[in-house]
Amino acid sequence: MEHSGIATVVKNAGSQYLLSALPEWNLIPAVLRGRIRLKGGVATNPVAVGDRVRYACEGEPTPAHPATITEVLPRKNYVIRRSTNLSRQAHVIAANVDAAFLIVSLYFPEIKLPFLDRLLVTCEVYGVPATLVLNKVDLYRDEAPEQMAAFRRIYESAGYRVIETSTVTGEGVETLRAACRSKVCLLSGESGVGKSSLIRALDPELDPKVGEISEVHLQGKHTTSLYEMYRTQDGAFLIDTPGLRGFGLVDLKKEEIALYFPEMLKASRECRFTPCTHTHEPGCAVKDAVGAGTISVERYNSYLGMLEEDTKFR
Fold first, then answer.
1. What pLDDT does residue 216 have?
2. Quick one: which of 21, 52, 86, 227 is 20 to 30 A from 277 by CA?
3. Does residue 149 carry a pLDDT above 50?
4. Do residue 119 and residue 165 come from a single domain?
């Protein structure tokens, strides 16, 4: 008897997958049909965690006798990054995401705003609502209050919500839990920002690996990935990703980049010239807003960096 249906990819470990028909959590082991592997284009992975797929299996799927993924259904959105090597290959981090929570720390590791802004631009391009999670605030509250305030000012003025969290004191954990409830959520950030510890704080029953996870090296079609979705007790689905060290933009022309900085897009409607690169043109409302402090210098510098550097980012 054939078992078949539609389910969501909840784990991708190289060529092995686990599926579940969300919001149910009945895990189905699966592998890819060979021809789907050829449809990936520039992406190293034609199937990502969060993808909805059709599957079939003669008999009950088991690890020894897995189902076969026969089709990947159209995505409502996804998050993708270019390889940090010099190839043009790209990697889909997650698909069909209701919300992305980008986790950062002021230090340990030190925050890299250009890296964060690339993540935010990618979320804007592909229609993924993004929230920033400033983690480890128990370390900064007394020692770096000005830096905390500056971070909030930069990103809240750009239109992003900032949630402050600490797994040591529990601060902000309930706020984050409420923001994730009943959603498929991507949790992403650099290695060492405390992502796995936050997942444990959101649901102590979960046991993601805590500690730095090496970046996945995107070299060729046979990339080994460690991407997994967890279901929390209160109905959230959290996609955990390896800690990222680099994030290259994909399929974005230089003249389009400013469209995905919400604060720059709003100000640009008053620019004298259209199109405007916001670099040298007279009557540029974006440059005026940077001078007036309504657009942060840090975000503007990130934008300039993206204009200059479209081959590799580390």
1. 37
2. 86
3. yes
4. yes
What CATH number corresponds to the domain at position 302? 1.10.40.50
pLDDT tens, position by position, 40-57 = 455 677 899 999 999 999
Query: Could you tell me if residue 248 is inside a domain?
Result: no
Q: What is the DSSP string of the chain?
A: -EEEEEEEEEEEETTEEEEE-TTS---EEEEE-HHHHTT-TTBS-SS-TT-EEEEEEESS-BTTB-EEEEEEPPPS-EEEEE-SSSS--EEEEEES-SEEEEEE-STTTTP-HHHHHHHHHHHHHTT--EEEEE--HHHHTTT-HHHHHHHHHHHHTTT--EEE--TTT-TTHHHHHHHHTTSEEEEEEBTTSSHHHHHHHH-TT--PPPS--PPPP--SS-----EEEEE-TTS-EEEE-PPBS--B--S--GGGGGGGSHHHHHHHTT-SSSS--SSS-TT-HHHHHHHHTSS-HHHHHHHHHHHH--S---
Same domain, 298 and 180: no
For residue 198, what are the domain limits?
78-240
**Whole-number mean pLDDT of the chain?**
86
* pLDDT value of position 314: 35
